[in-house]
UniProtKB/TrEMBL annotation:
Gene Ontology molecular-function annotations: isomerase activity
One Pfam family matching this protein: AP_endonuc_2
UniProt cross-references to Gene3D superfamilies, sorted A to Z: Divalent-metal-dependent TIM barrel enzymes
Organism: Neobacillus driksii
Domain Xylose isomerase-like TIM barrel: 21-254
Taxon lineage: Bacteria, Bacillati, Bacillota, Bacilli, Bacillales
Spans through the membrane: none
Sorted UniProt keywords: Isomerase
UniProt protein name: Sugar phosphate isomerase/epimerase family protein
InterPro entries reported in the protein's UniProt record: IolE/XylAMocC-like (IPR050312), Xyl_isomerase-like_sf (IPR036237), Xyl_isomerase-like_TIM-brl (IPR013022)
Length: 272
């Protein structure tokens, strides 16, 4: 298994600091979820007109970009929004070709008061449209266990309807366990055939907070991370274990200099 962090955890870092920190702490890759406080990478020359220079810098540092974490939602009733997502996907797919990146993360999204059955149909229709782009650029969409799609059974229904070699699962190992109490073994039994990438975080229950839990350094919460790692290893998973440190959304948590070093040390200990 390989280690990466997402740039959600270091929203104010420039490319120099991102690369130097990743190398210093023994990471294999960096997953881009925004840059310098902006979620839209394409506003920056490093990911547009000067992208070849950025690619070169990653190659020289022996770092991969295993995934670009987009803002694309699979559930939307808006034609305008869907078109915007298609354009975003095309931009990320083009970046994937530059960096030799295999994956683009997509969300299911909130379904509001839409019935679950109708939501299944809408997501199915949108995925089929987005897959045309994925197939054209030969990249893979990763459907994350997130928001109204943390239930592995809801996710599985979409994969029962869509069979594509360009459509897989990003298992955020925190969300199903913490938000709906789904046991990791059940998640794997339901979705394991589709899991190509993982996000890692830890937390503990904290009453009176908006989320109902508090994010913390790995090992300081009660998410069964070692059990999850053992489950992945037992079943032959060899992909990335990517820290999603939500510093952009939760400024009270530790600074990235602390969190990234701690994650690398923690994971290398359980990877032994």
């Amino acid at each position: 298994m390989k280690l990466a962090f997402t740039t959600l955890g270091c929203p104010n870092w420039d490319l120099d600091k991102i690369i130097s920190n990743a190398v210093e702490n023994g990471y294999d890759g960096v997953d881009f979820r925004g840059y310098l406080g902006e979620l839209d990478l394409f506003k920056f020359s490093e990911f547009s007109r000067n992208v070849r220079e950025t690619v070169r810098r990653f190659q020289e540092a022996t770092l991969e970009v295993p995934c670009f974490s987009s803002s694309v939602r699979l559930f939307t009733n808006s034609k305008e929004e869907s078109e915007n997502y298609r354009e975003e996907l095309k931009k990320y797919a083009a970046l994937c070709q530059e960096f030799h990146t295999p994956y683009i993360r997509v969300f299911g999204g909130s379904i509001g008061d839409t019935s679950r059955e109708e939501a299944f149909s809408i997501v199915e229709q949108n995925v089929l449209e987005y897959l045309k782009i994925a197939e054209e650029y030969d990249v893979h969409l990763l459907f994350e266990t997130h928001d109204d799609w943390t239930s592995s059974e809801y996710m599985k229904e979409i994969f029962n309807r869509i069979h594509s070699s360009h459509f897989y699962v990003l298992w955020d190992v925190h969300h199903p366990y913490r938000t709906i109490g789904e046991e990791p073994v059940f998640t794997w039994e339901t979705l394991g055939d589709y899991v190509k990438y993982t996000h890692w975080k830890d937390s503990y229950v904290k009453e009176g907070t908006q989320r109902g839990y508090q994010l913390c350094l790995l090992g300081e919460g009660d998410v069964p991370l070692k059990e999850i790692y053992t489950l992945l290893k037992k079943n032959g998973y060899e992909g990335y274990c990517t820290l999603e440190w939500e510093k952009k959304w939760c400024p009270e948590i530790e600074e990235p200099e602390i969190a990234f070093k701690q994650y690398s040390s923690y994971m290398k200990e359980i990877l032994k």
